[in-house]
Design brief:
The longest helix is centred in the last third of the chain and has 16 residues, at 171-186. The chain is globular. It is α/β, with parallel strands linked by helices and 262 residues long. The protein has helices at residues 44-51, 74-79, 97-103, 114-124, 126-130, 141-153, 171-186, 198-204, 222-227, 229-236, 238-242, 244-253, and strands at residues 6-15, 18-28, 33-37, 59-64, 67-68, 82-85, 159-163, 190-195, 207-212, 215-221. Strand 9 and strand 10 (215-221) form a beta hairpin.
Length: 262
Amino acid sequence: MSQPLLAVRGLRAAYGRIQALRGVDLEVHPGEVVAVIGANGAGKTTLLRTLAGLMPPAGGTVLLEGRDVTGRPAEEMVRLGVALVPEGRQVFYGLSVWDNLVLGAYHRRGQADLRRDVEEVFALFPVLAQRRRQAAGTLSGGEQQMLAIGRALMARPRLLMLDEPSLGLAPKVVRDVMGRLVELRARGVTVLVAEQHARAALAVADRAYVLERGRIALAGSRERLLEEPAVRAAYLGRRALRTGAAADEKADTGAPLTMSEE
């Protein structure tokens, strides 16, 4: 394969004495949608926050197209082409849809192309065009998620990272949002998505990693993980899909996942 756009080697992160990431290795190649799945508390948010420069790593290396960017601050990571859609959307409720989108391009020096880029976001999410003058706080949860993705796209990222984009959304809206990730891949945007809703993430991913207690437990193609008994039992069964708590219970009480022999 080509050189990875993102290569993570032995990444560690901690909250005081609590080890949140314990030597994570992963790669994302240009043009891929890669999923990181795992139960609540597995370390998915910490992973993305560390990669985005919002949290300092305790060890390991992060390479962007072979360049060491370990520990770079968030504003520099955005300039380098890495954008994060945070968990819970975190849109600016009191500002209009239009203003939220323009704020996503705050680091860009030239303003000439802003209107064109906003219109491209509207083409991707037509409902936002209808709400352009509406306050973000009045949007539905799904519309806010679309706005958060659109705001990140205004940074013109080479790598778009999304943290739990399905959180709190109805199944139909989840399918719609996830489908947009496939469309973004077709447009040349590389995507890394962290999701507890494993079935939704694996439906659009090329490859996936299973994160368990801060470590990568399994990795492989979408097809392989969908057929892997450990993944099916922990993340694709009825109990795991009913609530996040069910997945947490499975992860907290069961033995670590292991890949079955081929």
